[in-house]
Design goal:
The structure holds 2 protein chains of 2 kinds. Chain A is an alpha+beta fold. Chain A has helices spanning 2-21, 62-66, 101-105, 131-134, 147-151, and strands at 45-47, 72-78, 84-92, 111-113, 128-129. Chain A has a domain at 38-152: Alpha-Beta Plaits, CATH 3.30.70. In chain A, strands 2-3-5 form a 3-stranded antiparallel beta sheet. Chain A has a two-stranded antiparallel sheet with strand order 1-4. The radius of gyration of chain A is 26 Å and the shape is elongated. Chain B has helices at 4-39, 55-65, 76-92, 120-141, 145-176, 181-187, 193-196, 198-211, 223-226, 236-261, 272-293, 299-328; strands at residues 103-105, 108-110. Chain B has a two-stranded antiparallel sheet with strand order 1-2. Chain B has one domain (69-328). In chain B, a hairpin with a 2-residue loop joins β1 and β2. Classes of the chains: A alpha+beta, B mainly alpha.
Chain lengths: 176, 329
Amino acid sequence: MNLWRGIKGSIQPFGITFRNIFRKPSTIQYPEQKRTPAPRFRARIILTRDPDGGERCVACYLCSAACPVDCISMQSAERPDGRRYATWFRINFSRCIFCGMCAEACPTLAIQMTPDYEFSKREPLTLVYEKEDLLVDHGGKDNEYNYYRHAGIGVVNPRGGNPDEAPPVDIRTNLP
Amino acid sequence: MIDLLTVVIILVKLILILGVILTLAAYLVFAERRILGRMQLRLGPNRVGPFGLLQPLADVIKLLTKEDFLPSQADKWLFLLAPGMASITAILAFAVVPFSPPLHLFGREIPMVVCDLNVGVLYFLALSSLAVYGVALGGWASNSKYSLLGGIRGLAQLISYELSMGLSLVPVVLMARSFSLTDIVLAQSPLPFAILNPVAFLIFMISIAAESKRIPFDIPEAENELVAGYHTEYSGMRFGLFFVGEYINVIILSSMTTVFFLGGWSGPLLPPLIWFFLKMLAVSFFFIWMRGTLPRLRYDQLMHFGWKFLIPLSLLNVIATGAVLLAIR
């Protein structure tokens, strides 16, 4: 019985491999044939804009903190109207592992992943993308979302000067 | 006695055989990669030239332009010599292969074999045993643990299958009553020996699978355990020689299977030379098919299989064939 199973087990696979010769290979020949990636495919990162054209990024550093390979760096600043922005924003794509943590961490939907995976380069330094390379003219996956509409447009300095806003509470007044 | 024309004919035969064998070996590599690819639902190399047919050329150029690396502690001369041993022994065995019956050209008979030795079988067995020197010396001279283990395994494998391979050829010699390969082919005129003596054929096929050091018997170069076994330290064309030697070995072993068991050049309709090549390519395809199908045996499994099963079986087969032949006579 055992011997028979051994013999059968060494002969049967020959039939399977022979049948496979006549089956269609599952190879996609890349440069000529391309598969369309899913809409949420994680590839080249972009910085999106509001519907009214302003930068969504508020330079909160959350993406930079979430990045497991530390490939995102930026410098935050504040405009006179209180709106925060990044004076420079840099992603080193030669380090990026396209995990999507930055896009998940982003509170303003500014940083997003696109399905564009074909941007390999010969020179590693050309893979360091600056803010102007990352910024796009559309809202990415959600064109309607406008962070400042929710968080209060026109943040003034000092805080609490907006029409429907109360000034920040001075915590010391709560002390006994 | 030997006139100029005879010398020229011999030289032309040598050049033809060498050219055809080397081209065939290069394209066997290509065919193996394509067929293996299809068996694994891939395409295989199809980029260089139409259908990838220039891939062997690209590989040769790549191997020739790579650095020929010599490990610092290696035994220099043996290290440099071993790849040659592996391929030369395989090429030399073609001297006794009869490709077709003698041709009649320019009013003289030209035998389609370089040298019809009357001990052709022994010559083939001797060369196939010598081939393991390339493995053993290459493994030893590299001064690397993996290479050494590969070389040792090569030797251990040799003593396990070589006996049964020799013994499986004894019934062939008994039935043909000759050691000459031409006579062996002629003796198979009604029925090939593969049908007359299937046990010997089976043992021979298993033994040459071990002899060729390919899956399922590629124990000396087991990638998963020994990096690349005996040719771990080789690079460039020296690795290429080992590699091409393996495929020339496949071709010579397929030719020998054709000669010993499949009736050599004999066959209906087509010219004898075509029949020979068709049979040889069919056996070569079986080698590739086997590589795509079976897993690698363990080192001790091969030894057990060789010593405890194949050798007793082939001994019994020798005795049985001898008894039957004696009874018939």
